[in-house]
Amino acid sequence: STDFGVYAQDQIALTGQLDLLLGGRYDWARDSYPDTYGSRNAACYPNCTALPLVPYPTDKAFSPRVAALYKLDHRNSVYASFSKSFGDSSGRDENGNPLKPQIGRQWELGYKTSQMGGRLTGSVTLYTLTKSNLTEYTPIDFFPRVVGAARSRGIELDLAGQVSRNLNVIASYTYDETRITEDPYNGTLGHRLGSVAPHVLS
Length: 202
Known about the structure:
The chain is an all-beta fold. It has strands at about 1-15, 20-30, 60-70, 75-85, 100-115, 120-135, 145-165, 165-180, 200.
């Protein structure tokens, strides 16, 4: 695959209490099979006796990022953010068509605190992440295909502290409720998305 992107980002202190972050990224992405399976523009995967397939398109996307942080005092602050992500397609479906790129959208709302002169920090984050154009493999011939979309909603807790001069401790916990929100093939609408653990502790 070939990926190229440009991005810009700036953090602005609007007031003594309010910080604003603005950013954006523009990507160009193109996937292709190696020459083992035919030319890069007309791959004949999975066997080279097949007719040339539709050439891979060049996918393009703009991904914005916006965040704001408000300082309640010198120890506590709240923040909110929105970001969009873009992933190039990978492979072809059972009909030989290139897969669509994955698109993600994430909202966050959080609280941060710093105590004991900065020796103890913590944060709580609520988030919603939606990803579209998810893929899975067909049960018979194992071709990838776009199955729809999934949404993750959850909370993250992070705590970091300096217990002593020589010992720091970091703890985190995530509860993630991930559900399939679109599935035109398999009837799994509303089911949990596989390979996503609901509880993560470290």
